[in-house]
Amino acid sequence: MTSEPSAPLPAGAVIGILGGGQLGRMLALAAHRLGLRAHIYAPERDAPAFDVTPLKTVARYDDMVALAKFSEAVAAITWEFENVPAEVAEVHGIARKLRGSSAVVGVAQDRVLEKRFIESCGLAVAPWQAIDSLDDLKISLAAVGSPAVLKTRRLGYDGKGQWLVREGDDLRSVFNGLKGAPAVLESFVAFEREVSVILARGANGATAAFDVTENIHENHILRRSTVPARVSPAVAAAAVEAARDIAERIDYVGVLGVEFFVTGDAERPLLVNEIAPRVHNSGHWTEAAAVTSQFSNHIRAVAGWPLGDPTRFADAEMVNLLGDEVLKASSLQGVSLHLYGKSEVRPGRKMGHTIRLSPLTR
Amino acid sequence: MTSEPSAPLPAGAVIGILGGGQLGRMLALAAHRLGLRAHIYAPERDAPAFDVTPLKTVARYDDMVALAKFSEAVAAITWEFENVPAEVAEVHGIARKLRGSSAVVGVAQDRVLEKRFIESCGLAVAPWQAIDSLDDLKISLAAVGSPAVLKTRRLGYDGKGQWLVREGDDLRSVFNGLKGAPAVLESFVAFEREVSVILARGANGATAAFDVTENIHENHILRRSTVPARVSPAVAAAAVEAARDIAERIDYVGVLGVEFFVTGDAERPLLVNEIAPRVHNSGHWTEAAAVTSQFSNHIRAVAGWPLGDPTRFADAEMVNLLGDEVLKASSLQGVSLHLYGKSEVRPGRKMGHTIRLSPLTR
Predict the structure, then answer these.
(1) CA–CA dist A89, A17 (Å, integer)
(2) In angstroms, rounded to a whole number, what is the distance separating the alpha carbons of residues B151 and B149?
C-alpha cells in the first residue's frame, strides 16, 4: 500500500475515494477541477459525496467483492479518513492502486501506536500511559498528573471517546465508561495555543507545506482556524520540519495534517497532538487563500503529478458551520462559503464552513 | 422567463444547467460547493459537464418532451451559453424556472439586435451596418470605413463567422462566404486595449461587480486576462456603470460579461463590443483571486440567494490552455490549474486555464 513509482495519471483518469463525507466530497471536487474523474465508495446511501459525481459504489468497507470491483474501476485509490480497515489492503489487486502509506494508516488509527511512532521520529508528545485496566488508570493518573485526558485508543474523533479525568474522580466509573475499549491517558497540556501543519508529499518525494495554521476547538470540535498562526518563525519552521520528518519516515504520498500544542516552554516548544494521514479540517482555508488547495495537492500527489504551489495570498479565518448554523449560511456576508450538502442537520454536525479573507500581513 | 420573485432555494435543491461544456461544468462545481445539486442538459453524450454530477439529460435543445421532464426535475434553470433557442421558454412549466432574462438572450444571439439594444442604453458601439446583400456590403464598407470586420448576425463565437474586410477586397467573394447568412459590418476599432466587466445581479436587484479585467485575444480566441486592468479609475467606473445599466435595463438575474474597447478617445473612452448573458471566460480569475467566484455568484443569483462578496485579494493573470498545451498542464509551476476534462484535444480548443497570482497592487 503505497508510493510505488507509477506514471502520472492522464486527463479523465478515475480517482477512487474511500469515504463519502465532506472530505471525500471536497476531494472529488478537486479531482474534477483537475480534469480527473472521481469514484466514491461509501456505505451510506445518502453520503454527501455521492451528489457530486456520477461514479459510486454503495457498500461496506469489509465487502471484499465490492472493493475488488471498485479497485478495477479506478486508476488510484485514496481515502478521506484514517479508519480504513487494514483488510482493505488485502483485496486482490488493490495494493498497487492504494496511495498514501499503510504504515501511517495503521498508526493513526491507534493512539498508542501513534504516540510511539511520533516518539520514534524524535518528536515530543505530552506524557501518556496505555490503559488496559482500572489499576492502569489509577497508577497512570499519578504518573502523568492531574488533570489528564482519557481517550479510547481507536475510532475517536471530534471529542468522541474522550473524558477529562481529575484526581479524586470516581476512577472506577470513569473506567467502566470505556466499556472494555483499550485506552490511553494523556497529561492535560496547558498549551498556549494549538497549531497545525498541512503538508503535501508527492510520489517523487517532493514536499509542499502550507503556512502554519492556528486552531481553536470548542467541545473537542474544530471551531476556527486562522492563518498566519501567532508563532515565531522558529516555531513555525520546527512544526513544518516535524511534519516533513513524519511524512518521510513512512514514505507517505498525499496530504497529511499534524496537530501540535504550542507550550511556551523554550526547551520543548511543540508537542505533537495528532497525525491525520489525509486532508484536514484546519487546511480548508487553502481553497480560498492559497494558489493550490490542500485538496488539489492531495489529488495531484495521488495522481502522481508534481505538487502545486502552496503560496498564500491573503490572511484567512476559517470557521466551521455546526448544526443549525447552516440554516442562515446563504446570507452570511463577506465570506467565501462552502456547504457540504448534508440533508440532516444535527447539533454539532459539520455542515459547512466559511473563509474570511483579509489583506496579507506576512 | 425571468426574475419572478421566489423564495431562496434550500440546501440540496437542484439547479438545472442548459449546456455541458466547461462553463456548465464550472457552474455545476460551484453549485456543489454551495451544497446544491446540478442537473446538466446537453445533446452531446460525452459533454465534459456530465463527468461532475450524477444528474443528467442527454437530449437536443429542441426536444420539448425532454425539456419538460428536465424542467420538472429541477428547481431553477440557467444556461452556459447565449444561444438557447427561444422555443425553450415555450415549454410547459419551464418559464417560471428559467432565471436570467429572455430579453438579453434574444438580444445577445443577434449582433444587430445587440447593437441596437446597447445604443438604446445610451452606450456607444463601433460604427456598424446590417448586411443583407452584396450592395449593403459595398455601401457599408464606405460608410463604416476600411478596414472593417464582417460578422454573421447569429451563432458566432471565438472568431467563427468573422472576416476582416479591406477596401479593394473582392467583396463578392467575401459576401458569398456568408452563404446567405445575415451579417453585420463593423468598423475595425484601433483600440488601446480590450477590457471586460463581470457583473452579478441578484434576484433582489442588488449588483456586485468584479474588478475590471484586461483581455488579450489571439486568433479571435481569448488568450489572457489580467487584473487589475490598466485603465484609469474613471474609465473603470464607467465600464462597471455601463454593465450595471445593461443588467438593470433587462432586469437580468445572474452573471453577465460585457466586453469593451478602450479607445484612448477622451470623448468616447469606451465602446461596447459584446454582451454575454452568462459567466464569461474573462472572469475565470475570480475562482482563485476573489472572495466569491463568478460561478458562485451566478449560482447564488439563480438560487435566489444574496450575492457573495466580489472583493479581490491578489493580482491575477488567467491564461487559457488551448489544444495540446493541455498535455503539459500538470507540470506547470506556480499557477492555480483548472482543466475541463475534455477527452478530445483539437487545435485552438479551450482545454483548461491557469491563474497566476501575485501580491495585490491596487
Answers:
(1) 14
(2) 6
Contacts of B303 in chain A (CB under 8 A): 330
Phi and psi at residue A269, in whole multiples of 5°? -65, -25
Residues B32, A334: C-beta atoms closer than 8 Å: no
Question: Coil, strand, or helix at residue A30?
Answer: helix
| CA angle (A258, A260, A261) in 5-degree steps | 170
Q: Which of residues 98-127 of B touch A (CB under 8 A)?
A: none
Q: With an 8 Å Cβ cutoff, are A32 and B52 in contact?
A: yes
Q: What is the pLDDT of residue B104?
A: 66
Whole-number CA gyration radius for chain A: 20
A245: exposed, middle or buried (C-beta count within 10 Å: 0-12, 13-18, 19+)?
middle
In angstroms, the first-to-last Cα distance of chain A is 39
- Which cell numbers hold the place of A142? 499519578
pLDDT at B307 over 80: yes
pLDDT at A1: 43
Q: Which pTM was predicted?
A: 0.94
What per-residue confidence (pLDDT) applies to B316? 98
**What percentage of chain B reaches a pLDDT higher than 90?**
82
Q: Can you say how many angstroms the Cα of residue B286 is from the centroid of all Cα atoms in its chain?
A: 14
Q: pLDDT, tens digit, for every residue of B149-187?
A: 999 998 766 667 788 999 999 999 999 989 989 999 999
Least confident of A110-119, A157-166, A249-258: A157-166
Distance from CA of B53 to the nearest CA of A (A): 4
Angle between helical axes of A233-249 and A111-120 (0-180°, round to 10): 110
Query: pLDDT-based confidence at A342, cuts 50/70/90?
Result: very high
Instruction: Say yes or no to pLDDT of B1 above 70.
Output: no
Asked if the Cβ–Cβ distance from A309 to B32 is below 8 Å, we say: no
Residue B356 in grid coordinates = 497566476
Cell of B75: 428547481
Q: Is the pLDDT of residue B3 over 50?
A: no
User: Are B288 and A291 a contacting pair at CB < 8 A?
Assistant: yes
Nearest to B48 by CA among A76, A339, A326, A12: A12
φ, ψ of residue A185 to 5 degrees: the values are -110, 125
Q: Going from the N-terminus, what domains does chain A have, and what CATH number goes with each?
A: 14-101 (3.40.50.20), 127-187 (3.30.1490.20), 193-358 (3.30.470.20)
Q: A317 contacts in B (CB within 8 Å)?
A: none
Reference B259, options B129, B155, B118; nearest CA is: B118
Parallel/antiparallel/unpaired status of strands B336-339 and B350-358: antiparallel
Phi first, then psi, for residue B261 (nearest 5°) are -100, 135
Q: What is the mean pLDDT of residues A68-76?
A: 96
- Neighbouring residues of B328: CB distance < 8 A, sequence distance ≥ 6: none
Beta bridge partners of B355: B318, B336
Which of B53, B334, B360 is opposite residue A52, by nearest beta carbon? B53
Dihedral sign of CA atoms A273, A3, B331, B347 in order: negative
Cβ atoms A217, A281 nearer than 8 A: no
- List CB contacts of A76: < 8 A, sequence separation 6 or more: A6, A9, A13, A15, A16, A97, A98, A99, A302, A303, A304
The pLDDT tens digits for A264-286 are: 999 999 999 999 999 999 999 99
The interface predicted TM-score (ipTM) is: 0.93
Among residues B306, B273, B271, B281, the alpha carbon closest in space to that of B292 is found at: B306
Residues of chain A positioned with their CB less than 8 A from the CB of B288: 291
- Are the beta carbons of A291 and B296 separated by less than 8 Å? no
pLDDT at A171: 93
pLDDT in tens, A240-259: 999 999 999 989 999 999 99
